[in-house]
Amino acid sequence: MTLGEQSDVTASELAERRARMVQEIEADVRDTYFYTGRKALDERVMAALAKVPRHEFVPPDMRGQAYRNAPLPIGHGQTISQPYIVALMTDMLRLQPEDIVLEVGTGCGYQTAILAELARQVFSIEIVENLGLRARELVERLGYTNVEASIGDGYHGWEAHAPFDAIIVTAAATIVPPPLIEQLKSGGRMAIPVGREFGTQTLLLLEKDQQGQISEQEILPVAFVPLTGGH
């Protein structure tokens, strides 16, 4: 079977590939302990990675590679993030079952589905209309009723549903967008890559205390597509 072929792969084989992907993520977590300070991720996060069918979120000709622990192209110059990065950023948010989350950059909807497994409500914004509409249809088909997706410029957040317990940005910004800081609830957390070019980007964790003050922690170097929009 070639990498692009998927039609003959059984559900059990897909589950085995997903399980191997989770094992690779766990190994990556241990290997990056120096950067992240994490020897393991939240069990709920890993269970979501083991459940969500990543092969549904990649283009048909890429499905044979869906469970590689690597980013993959999804069209329009965008990518589905490496599963390890998806797991790490989700873990950084420390989501609770009653949390309301903002996702900037729906992409193919894979990260959206992971968030929907863990939070009460996910609001997701995608600037590329074709991607956003396709992702919305897919997450609905997969049965996620706690996701509301919109087409727009996520730099400005989604004020109508703010404040958010957590915000995740899946594209690299040159600065942390001020509207997102404003829309983060006191006690909330934001995971965002910041940097102009692939070689200079850093994944940041921002936390807002009860007085509205922001603390910032650098987690590790990353490589994301840039955040786009009129800003």
What report would you give on this structure?
With 231 residues, the chain is an alpha/beta fold. It has a single domain (11-221), classed as 3-Layer(aba) Sandwich (Rossmann fold), CATH 3.40.50. Helices cover 32% and strands 24% of the residues. The protein is built from seven helices and nine strands; from the N terminus they run H-H-H-E-E-H-E-H-E-H-E-E-H-E-E-E. The protein has helices at 11-31, 33-36, 43-51, 83-93, 110-118, 129-141, 178-183; strands at 72-75, 78-80, 100-104, 121-126, 147-151, 164-169, 184-194, 202-208, 214-221. The strands form two sheets. A seven-stranded mixed beta sheet has the order 5-4-3-6-7-8-9. Strands 1-2 form a two-stranded antiparallel ribbon. A hairpin with a 5-residue loop joins strand 8 (202-208) and strand 9 (214-221). Helix 1 runs antiparallel to helix 3, helix 1 packs across helix 4 (83-93) and helix 3 (43-51) packs across helix 5. It is globular, with a radius of gyration of 17 Å. The termini are far apart. The model is unreliable at 1-6 (pLDDT under 50).
Major beta sheet, specifics?
7 strands, mixed
User: How many domains, in number, for the residues?
Assistant: 1
Average pLDDT number: 93
CATH homology-level superfamily? Vaccinia Virus protein VP39
Give the tags.
single chain; 231 residues; alpha/beta; Rossmann fold; seven-stranded mixed beta sheet; two-stranded antiparallel sheet; 7 helices; 9 strands; 32% helix; 24% strand; disordered N terminus
